[in-house]
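look at this stuff:

>
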Amino acid sequence: MRQKGKFIFYHRTNADNARAIVNNGFTNSNGYFLSNRLWTGVWLSSIPVDSKSPSQDDALLMVKLDLDSRELARWEWTPEGGSHREWLMPAGIINRCATVEVVDQLDASTVAA
């Protein structure tokens, strides 16, 4: 999950949103996310997570984040029985500390091990 001192994460979205994110940065989303509390941020995962409703418009972003591991821990969600790790992080932090690129989903070599 680390590459050249940076943490590697993934974010799944559609092609239009991926272009907007690469060009202008992330924006926060709001939702209840299996709770009665409203949460705000951007979901990142430790592995490329499949889309809940796959389509040809899917896009996968690789997010290389240069952030202290203690700061990163603040934003981690730890669901029971999960197959991967997830973070709900403010867009401003990601935009300030990360580089983002679209990943070729058919080329496994573009996915960090």
Notes: The longest strand covers residues 6-14.
